[in-house]
């Protein structure tokens, strides 16, 4: 379970209500009692139900019904129902709806891609990149988890991932071993992953005993399959990650390459799941 702090909840609410809901105030309906219910308009995997529940709880509402993140619902299914004062219901309405639609859209695409990949390779892991909008990483990570996708790398402090942009500053690919082995910053508990962009560098790197994995960027499924075959005979413990341009349309071919992990940014381009909110007055 991903821990969402009260600070994040407060920021979500405060962004939409910087001072007060002047429409509810003008109409004088704030103290009226009511309920709000969220329903799916199309089939999808839900993410953000718990978050929406926390928003309404923070606003003083009582949660009457709430599905778990990761549940796949059919059209017309109830996601969340809460009761409270009209002021609170209207304050939480749009921020909860937007959050549910956006996160559930991501979770739905994640699950679709996982299902396609597992249809040809049950052991492969899908991982999402960190190409999210700034300040949204906790929320999109919640969506990935709901859809069955792992986080590839949540931040620069998590994994040593060496790109060509790093190699530019050490004098070239052939200097990687010298620089890593002479470094004073030993990553005892961190994996070291090297990204390669061609067959020559990839095959050479299979012999490196100072890295834990290879991230193959924009190589074809056939090229990756050949590298995996070489890996199995040269260095079976080395992790092989396939990355670069992998999406719902081609993930099946990449999963069949027998890489250990597929890294993708396609999840961020998911369409929001269509969800409706119904607010009703209760006497």
Automatic annotation (TrEMBL):
Gene3D superfamilies attached to this UniProt entry: Aldolase class I, Quinolinate phosphoribosyl transferase, N-terminal domain
Gene Ontology BP terms: NAD+ biosynthetic process; quinolinate catabolic process
Residue ranges constituting the Quinolinate phosphoribosyl transferase N-terminal domain according to the UniProt record: 21-104
InterPro entries cross-referenced by the UniProt entry: Aldolase_TIM (IPR013785), ModD (IPR006242), NadC/ModD (IPR027277), Nicotinate_pribotase-like_C (IPR036068), Quinolinate_PRibosylTase_N_sf (IPR037128), Quinolinate_PRibosylTrfase_C (IPR002638), Quinolinate_PRibosylTrfase_N (IPR022412)
Keywords, in A-Z order: Glycosyltransferase, Transferase
Domain Quinolinate phosphoribosyl transferase C-terminal as annotated: residue spans: 106-275
Superkingdom assignment: Bacteria
GO cellular component, one term: cytoplasm
A molecular function GO annotation: nicotinate-nucleotide diphosphorylase (carboxylating) activity
NCBIfam families in UniProt: modD (TIGR01334)
Record family assignment: Belongs to the NadC/ModD family.
Descriptive protein name: Putative pyrophosphorylase ModD
Organism: Mucispirillum schaedleri ASF457
Organism lineage: Bacteria, Pseudomonadati, Deferribacterota, Deferribacteres, Deferribacterales
């Amino acid at each position: 379970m991903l821990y969402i702090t009260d600070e994040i909840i407060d920021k979500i609410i405060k962004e939409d209500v910087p001072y007060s809901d002047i429409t509810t105030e003008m109409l004088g309906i704030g103290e009226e009692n009511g309920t709000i219910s969220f329903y799916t308009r199309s089939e999808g995997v839900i993410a953000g139900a718990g978050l929406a529940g926390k928003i309404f709880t923070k606003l003083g509402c009582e949660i009457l019904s709430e599905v778990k993140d990761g549940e796949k619902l059919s059209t017309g299914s109830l996601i969340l129902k809460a009761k409270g004062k009209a002021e609170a219901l209207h304050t939480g309405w749009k921020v909860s709806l937007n959050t549910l639609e956006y996160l559930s859209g991501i979770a739905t695409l994640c699950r679709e891609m996982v299902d396609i990949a597992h249809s040809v390779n049950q052991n492969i892991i899908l991982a999402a990149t960190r190409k999210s909008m700034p300040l949204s990483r906790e929320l999109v990570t919640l969506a990935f988890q709901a859809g069955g996708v792992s986080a590839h790398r949540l931040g620069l402090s998590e994994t040593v991932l060496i790109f060509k942009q790093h190699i530019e500053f050490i004098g070239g690919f052939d200097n990687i071993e010298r620089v890593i082995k002479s470094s004073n910053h030993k990553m005892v508990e961190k994996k070291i992953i090297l990204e390669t962009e061609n067959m020559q560098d990839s095959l050479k790197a299979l012999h490196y005993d100072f890295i834990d994995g290879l991230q193959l960027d924009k190589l074809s499924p056939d090229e990756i399959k050949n590298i995996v075959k070489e890996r199995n005979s040269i260095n079976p413990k080395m992790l092989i990650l396939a990355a670069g341009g992998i999406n719902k349309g081609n993930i099946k071919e990449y999963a069949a390459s027998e890489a250990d992990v597929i890294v993708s940014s396609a999840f961020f381009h998911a369409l929001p799941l269509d969800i409706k909110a119904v607010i009703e007055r209760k006497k």
